[in-house]
Amino acid sequence: MIATPLPAEPFLVAHRGASHDAPENTLPAFELAWEQGADAIEGDFHLTSDGRVVCIHDFDTQRVSGTKRIVKSSTLEELRALDAGEWFHPKWKGVRIPTFQEVAATVPAGKNLYIEVKCGPEIVPELLRKIQASGLQDSQIAMISFNAPVIREMKEQAPQFKALWLTSFEKVSPLKPSEDEVLATLREIKADGFSSRADARLTSEYINTLSDAGFEYHCWTVDAPEVARKFLRLGALSVTTNRPAFLREALKRN
User: Fold this and answer.
1) Cβ-defined contacts of 226-231 (< 8 Å, 24+)
2) Local confidence pLDDT in tens for the 254 residues of the chain
3) DSSP per position, 74-109
4) Residue 18 three-state SS
5) Of 218, 211, 213, 212, which is closest to residue 194 (Cα–Cα)?
6) DSSP β-bridge partners for residue 197
7) C-alpha–C-alpha distance, residues 106 and 158, integer Å
8) DSSP secondary-structure letter at 50?
9) Which of 89, 201, 225, 253 shows the greatest Cβ crowding within 10 Å of its Cβ?
C-alpha cells in the first residue's frame, strides 16, 4: 500500500452527537458536537405509532430511559414523557427524546446531518416531509441505513440526497461481504456509497475497488487517532466518532 497524506481537514461526523460527553441522540449531545467542531452530526431515527419521526437508536427505550416502550408502538407523547438523559449522568436529568425537527434545527449553515434510518421504508414519506420543512439544503443531508430497501426507496423518492449503505463484516476470511457483493448491492439500490465499521482487515485494494466503480467510502465509529489516520489514508471520505474535538486535535498532531 502506498501511503497517502491525510486530508488537511478530515471530515468528522459526531456519532449520535458528542456521545462520549453527553447522552446519545439528544439535543445536548448534538449541540455539544457543534461546539466541538464536528462537520456533521449523525442521529438514529424511528417512526412512532402516531407517525412522528424521533431520534433514538434502539427499537425500545429501556437502555436510555430505564422504562421499556417499543418505539413503533408508542406515541410521541408517551416517548417524550421519558427521561433520556439521567442514565448517562445526573446532570442530564430531564433531557427528552428529540424529534427530527428539533435535531435538524441545531444544524448550522455549512454543516451536515447524517440521518440513519433504524426502521423500514415506511418512514420515508414522513421523513422527506420533515426534511423539506427543515429548511436544510439538499447538500447538507446524507441518508444512511443498514436496511438496503430504505436506501433504495430514498433514492427513488429523493435522488438529490446522498445515500450510503451501511454494513459490518462477518468474522470470516476473506472479508464478507466481498467487494463484488457490496458493489452488487450498491448498484441495485442506487446508493452513492458504502459505510462500514473501521475493520482492521480492510485494505486499500478493497476500498479502491469501490471508488474505482464510482462509489464513496466512509467509516465508523472511530475514537482512536491511529485508526482514524489509517482509514483516512485508505480513502475514507468521513470518519464517524464519539469524540469530535479529541479526534480533531489528535489528527492535527499527525
Assistant:
1) 227/198, 228/10, 228/198, 229/6, 229/254, 230/198, 231/198, 231/202
2) 445 667 678 999 999 999 999 999 999 999 999 999 999 999 999 999 999 999 999 999 999 999 999 999 999 999 999 999 999 999 999 999 999 999 999 999 999 999 999 999 999 999 999 999 999 999 999 999 999 999 999 999 999 999 999 999 999 989 999 999 999 999 999 999 999 999 999 999 999 999 999 999 999 999 999 999 999 999 999 999 999 999 999 999 86
3) S-HHHHHTS-SSTTT-GGGTT--PPBHHHHHTTPPT
4) coil
5) 218
6) 220
7) 23
8) T
9) 225
Burial class (CB in 10 A: 0-12, 13-18, 19+), 137: exposed
Name the residue type at position 159.
P
Q: Are 43 and 55 in contact (CB under 8 A)?
A: yes
Q: Residue 254 carries which side chain, given as an amino acid letter?
A: N
Judge whether 23 and 35 are in contact, CB under 8 Å. no
Provide the grid cell at 27: 439535543
